[in-house]
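ok trying this again, last paste got cut off
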Amino acid sequence: MKARKAKAVRPKPAKKKTPAVKQEPPPAAAPAGSSGDLATTELVIITGLSGSGKGTVLRALEDLGFYAVDNLPIDLLQTFADLTRDAANIRRAALVVDIREGTALERLPAMLNRIRATVPTTLLFLEAADPVLTRRYSETRRPHPLGTGASVPDSIHRERALLEPIRALADHVVDTSRFNVHDLRDLVRGKFQGEGETDDIMVYVTSFGYRHGVPADADLVFDVRFLPNPNYIPAFKHKTGKQKRVADYIRSFPQTAEFIERISDLLIYLLPHYIREGKSYLTIAFGCTGGHHRSVMIASDIFQRLKAAGYQVKESHRDIAR
């Protein structure tokens, strides 16, 4: 009986081995499909206005371990996306596609939809205010990619219009007007550093004037026009909320202190929840009529309170010099 059982046992492993050999090809083919390592694949497409900092962002992503390519011909975009998905040695990749592609850029929205169906893709659109872009071109003395047949401001205006359909598809729109190179690199690190590498959040507190428009990149906007306006006091008209006399005047009203207290408590409550959800940067904007007095003073106070609470915070005042 024992010998018979031994003979009965031997064929069974042989039967188990045969299906195992037949099932080997599917795992080998998995990377080319939409499963397997797809969850670890990441493709970042950087686009936006010329002079907005796309090169800086690409280099920052390269420092984070992304395979980086600048000015990839749009006809190779699908091939590059497939390579990112299939290649064993490339899991995170970034590339720049912009107005240098000319009329071929019109095909990007359709290509983006096809790529997103097979590869996790983030479209990052960079922009800046026209005066800022004009100044950057003046400083670098480089011609605009649309050519020298028109002035730089006219070329910027035309480029903005041409890129609007792509901007509408972006996962993130970043206004780099107030960023220097180091700020922009910090923002990229905060957003694209690998999951679990950091639990920090970079907070940008800015002031603005409603007459100049709400900042496009603001996550939270607070209207402080309910506070008494120092602009109507001749001694304060040409000063700003950064100056002590103006700030003391705004603080002299009880609603100012209550507002700062309540908003500070709200933000300190919200920030841990934003971090838990994976948000790596947050822009908080305070607006008054012109962006000179009330919003400046409030933004400065909130900046100090968040900094004292232990957060990484940067302060800026978009319209203070207008």
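PB: full thing came through this time. The beta strands are 42-48, 67-69, 92-96, 121-127, 172-175, 202-209, 220-223, 281-288, 312-317.
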